[in-house]
């Protein structure tokens, strides 16, 4: 092909004359010496000058071939076909089997703007993506931006942005019938096109006026097909995709050459003809062709005879083999016809590969000989050219017989032999057959990755690998021996069965577990609790045990969504473990004792279980001591399973003592709002603590948020692993099995004395057990009993009093300072009284002070006179961590020791030590465990009894009164009071706290026996009889787990029985205390007949009704008339508060646009826990209130948001919020929602809303200020100050910026730090002291914070500035008013003098 310069393109008839350059005589000999003789040439005959015309230039062109990477140049505009579409780019096919890539940012300006908008709004997935706009096989016009050389070959970057494609054209160059590619800007609601989508269009009309051209275009397919371009001003206005009429001038071996629009040369390559044998292509014939591109060097326009319709559906897939017949030999290869009449092409290079390697004959002749026209050959389809509409094939036997040809020929998990092609920093490139794959660094070896691992590989090395994943045409392999050698490959999630074991790779480790990856996209989660042997090891860190890239073989527990739940526990153990149910009771044999747990084997089976140390006793401080009492082989009874999902299962002796055989563990379906649940502490996090509730069919940990653990301002308590905690249910979702719990002491403690007694009785029971066990096993601590006299030897004196002694059995003893006389010396022997043991520190506690020893009876049997049980005086002997040991002072109490609890409940973290600040105090005897008396401060007793009575009154009132007074609930302001069950509710309505009892279960009635003393006189019997009127002898009690039980666990007190209180007894109803206590609190109660309440009710019901007299009937009629009159007045009074749904409906008929009335109506339903009715009222309100009353409607939306926030779910709140944004002002709704979430301490959700409103309304100063105010008010100072910086970056107006800075300074003064606010004001004034309003605002803020002196100094500085007279007048006026209010008459006069001086200075100027 001849390449000519621009001046060699004649467009007229000008002749170009060849001018021969005359060369002067030169001396070519560069060295010394004679020059050789030059033979004279004969004079050539002068040639005639040949004129280069259009015809001669046309004939001189040797046009052949189509586009190639060598011919590609920057700026070329080419017709292309879409080959592949991804989320971020489009791969296009150019003519000549060249390829380019169009980035998502090079589609169109409108589409780029659309994507940027989506990013700013933080939207998720785009509704419109590249795959929604384009499709494979679609024709587009692209412009070459750049051509780069890479390791993989040429990389061509293109654009299809109409602005770039048409950049070389002027506005007046668009003519009628021109085809152009534009950009769609139709309405977004149109279903025809997508905003920003490029499309072909034809110009129907073009009108040019001055510098503006108006086009009328059409993009209809039928218009594009018939449109033929017949005139253009210049060749650069030719746009690919235009249809022209080509006059054939010459039929070449490799194509057709001709002219279009008279003057422009066109060429159709053989690959762009309709068929390889086109009989219609004759010289002089006019055919229709489509412009592909214009070659820059020769200015030849390359055309195609294919239309711009979609690429036809293919009959063959890539990689298929088929028999094809040779049709014709082309310039670059052979064209063959498939059985489907489709054409395929085999290049000459691939034909050479099919020839014999030893052939020495001419290649061209060899090809003709082996592949004659009409012969059939088996070929493999390599690709399909959408531009040429032919298959690209190969006929060499190695390619045809190859089994691995494309990604479709391999399966995930398939074992292959691969050859290492190259080693890169990111991994290793391998080949298998005709496919190429990649091995990431993570999958090179079983061990942790390092660069040294690649040294054992070399290029050309063969190794075994498995297909890890296939993503489109990209194949990933693994070389890990743990995966390659394992035949059990998990490749599809539907093949998974519970209990199957598969090899996987650790891809991520967290403190909570391990993420494991399998073949394909399958992943599994291995939680920490499912790791072997670490269920009770809370310090175990999976991040230290596992490493990224490790091959493990876990078992499958189940499938959750698209992911697996894994375990490292053996399948056989899992099956045995499934036989154990939560709540099932066992007797176990100790197999091994650890520091923090006991392993036991269950007698009922071969299952091995564990008991955490804190589950050995109801009292946490005694758990380590009880652990010492066990050894291998010992039996432990009363064990109950609390978690059967862990390995090994977890048992509890603590819960087994509380839940007896008749008191069963509750199921999740029986849990109601207000139910008390026993829980075990598991761990803590930033959001709160995790607990394990004791439920029969539930074993998941529950997060209790910090706000439900402690009140604001309290110190967060320190919990220990599996510590006992009681929680109350605040909210429950039965469908998703979600619970919201609170463990606040005020929420779970019922103020019952019986609760305290029951809780403390467990402590004394374990103390008694330890003393008995220690005595039998020779513990020195347990060889003495409380009250026993012992001889002590003084070993050491304390610095602040007290001493250390040794008992006769060499046990160390400790004497408190107040129990030690001052005259003792080391080595001295003195008699004392044994008081108690400290099992944790292994010493006993003794009293040596004789006056106190005399107050303690030697015989501590707990027998006292019954009359002293109501109230008596006690003296403190010893204060311990859990209790106070005191002695009763009354003679009738026989100098018995009394044990006083310091903690009232499992959740009591503060204790009640403040009630025992004196040495002597009044107590009430509340119970007895064996010989141990239980007492409580009389003041505390009265306080609890009063709170309990008030609580019962509230419940009765809530049940009886179904009407709600106005103001009980103000949902519009986000607060609830009265009977609503909000997060801060202390009491629950009786109708919601009724516990369900399974009818199939046996009902147990509790029988309570009254206490009678050993030496009861006749008078005391009368006292006991008087109590029977106030307390029923048969009281049914309901336990917390929803089943009734019968009390049969009594302890003896002398010869009489005393109720031993259990934890479950404290949930409902008053239990009888000891005789005399009721009389103590009710001294006016007289002696009555022993008549049960049932008999009283029966006697009342059988009484005869007396006949009414006329006067009584008249009085009854009058009262009825007054009642009716009162009701009529209430109905007529519109100002009275409605107390029923009917009254609300009646008022709303008269005033349907009142948001206040609708809100009260919602509050009415919320107060009685009818949330669905409250929502329906809100919907009615939005339908009734006039659309023009936006404020009233917005109030209803706020009320609805508050309702969902407090009583709904997160999803319901989000759904309501989105609807509110659509129906109201977006900014106003966002700000109100942020305020609601902040008030509810839901800061995570609040931050999400802040992030969205910042992107939506970043130009609104009010948004920045309101959000900052909310952050400031919630003590989030850092975030609030960041808002100021962000606001100044978003808003560019200087005046608005100044106002924002001032407002932020005011917020600092009001909610933040005063120094920070003052610093902001000082910064403003230092840069621009002319702002009078800033001076006055600064002073006002200082005055509000009572910084008078600092405000005065600021005013003094202000009046010293050189400002306009008007500004100075305002400042002096402000100064004078300030001094008049906060100063003295002298200071006022001083200001006036300064003002006069300023006036004089101004007048002189």
List low-pLDDT spans. Answer: 1-36, 183-193, 960-1104
* Structural class assignment: alpha+beta
Q: What would you report as the Rg, rounded to the nearest angstrom?
A: 48 Å
In total, how many beta strands? 53
Task: Categorize the overall geometry.
Answer: extended
Biggest pleated-sheet summary: 6 strands, mixed
In helices, the fraction of residues equals 25-40%
- Average pLDDT rating: 77
For the terminal residues, how far apart are their CA atoms?
A: 91 Å
Residue share in β-strands: 15-25%
Q: Helix tally?
A: 37
* Strand order of the biggest β-sheet: 27-24-25-26-29-28
Task: Summarize the entry for a quick read.
The protein has 1405 residues and is α+β, with helices and mostly antiparallel strands.
Task: Supply the key terms.
single chain, 1405 residues, alpha+beta, six-stranded mixed β-sheet, five-stranded mixed beta barrel, 37 helices, disordered N terminus, nucleus
Characterization of the model:
- It is a single chain.
- Helix 24 packs antiparallel against helix 25 (1171-1184).
- The model is unreliable at 1-36, 183-193 and 960-1104 (pLDDT under 50).
- By secondary structure, the chain is α+β, with helices and mostly antiparallel strands.
- It is built from 37 helices and 53 strands.
- The strands form 12 sheets. It has a 6-stranded mixed β-sheet, with no helix packed on it. Strands 1-2-3-5-4 form a 5-stranded mixed barrel.
- Helix content is 29%, strand content 24%.
